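quick one, 314 residues, struct below
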Amino acid sequence: MKACCLAAFSTLLITPLAASEPVMFCERPLTAQAVAENTWMVEGVKEELSTSNCGHIGNQAFIATPSGVILIDSGSSPRFGDALKTLIAQYTAQPVRWVLNTHHHPDHFFGNAAFDEAQHLTLASTRALMARDRDALIDNVARLTGSSVEHSSITLPSVIEAGEITLGNYPLTLFAMSGHSGGDLVIMDHATDVLFLGDMGFYQRAAATTHTPSLQQWQEELKALSALNASTAVPGHGPSAPPDTIIGQTSHYLEWLDQHLSDVASEGLGANHALAVEIPDMLSTMALNEYEFTRSVMQLYPRYEARLLWGAPH
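---
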């Protein structure tokens, strides 16, 4: 099937349609990197939301198919979505017909409004989290980036179920995970062997753990994903790489963090003691490691204390 699919797509444009001016967003050029045949990713900066990056911190990816473009995540604002739409048009004449949102964090679905002619799809668990947190997320993005977002522009996607699906004539396999945010869509493209991890995978950037139901659950789901026969993975943050590389780094960080918090709690010490540790050398080179570590301790450590005292899950 793979050879057949790739042959059928050989007529699609891989190079820009014509010489074009660079697509700029927040005074930076947007670029698309080819990760497979007719498949590109747009990498966000390895920073937190700020006025200097205008919210472009998460990755997006798009697949050009004979029936239209499949966009995976749309960015942090309608304004960014407009720039992304212009960029995509430099790589294929096909319109964006489907937008798949991997989870409910705003840097991955607030750009949907720029693709109002496309079908927006996500898991039921993700949609529920979007509905729950949408207003707070809109306010937070405005506060951190200095750019207001119209509440009416952030509509919720339709629900799609995990499993084998076909968009137009293009098959994909969807996996329902929850380790990162409570509702995480992972997408496997068997035609190109590309695995789109969303924020289940971070690479060269420390993982954000704000909404994880459990670091252990996240690790278990990553083990399941590592068994898939993929050749390239696109993380939610950071560059593309072989799946073992991205999953391995994310897993190692989560394992170290989980063990460290467990050890400090078992000694009956407080959060300040949990913060007073050096991040291991092999993890210290990741962007935002001190920032995300501090956030993780402040948000997750009470769970570890509760588990020790009351046997609560963490």
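Confidence is low (pLDDT under 50) at residues 3-16.
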